[in-house]
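Hey, I was hoping to borrow your eyes for a little while. No rush at all, and the record is pasted right below:
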Amino acid sequence: MSGKAPEDAYTAEPFVPDRGGLPALRRAAADCRGCPLHRDATQTVFGAGDAHARLMLVGEQPGDQEDRQGRPFVGPAGKLLDRALAEAGIDPADAYVTNAVKHFKFTQAEPRKRRIHKAPSLREMTACGPWLAAELAVVEPELIVVLGATAGKALLGSSFRVTQVRGTVLEEEIHGRAERLVPTVHPSSVLRSDDREAAYQGLVSDLKVAARALG
């Protein structure tokens, strides 16, 4: 033993099984200690949805509701995303949804007070990368919708700017696979927007690009 806790290495790699599909990944992820975020979170929130989905949606990290329920996109942002997908002509049930980071990162002024979402660091995103790579390898989506800046940085590197490329189809190599991606904003940013209707229509418009790209 080196005396170092596994989270000090900042990689999920040792926790990722090499076979067994999504069920094995989900079980293994429940015990991930690849970075310190597991200490404060209630549970790992792994991806969910159709294991053979043509479309994968990648967000930033679980929020408060997701952390409590153990499923991605079940809070207010998830409900808004489902509505926007349906409006763009995509059945949410046909997609696979996941996050770049699988544990909720938050600050809390004092116990029992509201837990405030805190953006994951590049180090935490990189540590969690092997899970996302494994999900991509199993699901093999035809298209990835990148939800927001953090997911974009996790997939495409730290120079990613969602405002510059949203609503366009990108072709990039991700974790050794040629992928097509459509970046857009994270649905939680729509909820925080001063002009929520305009922000929502922008999200729907980007998702329609994704729907056309899937054909």
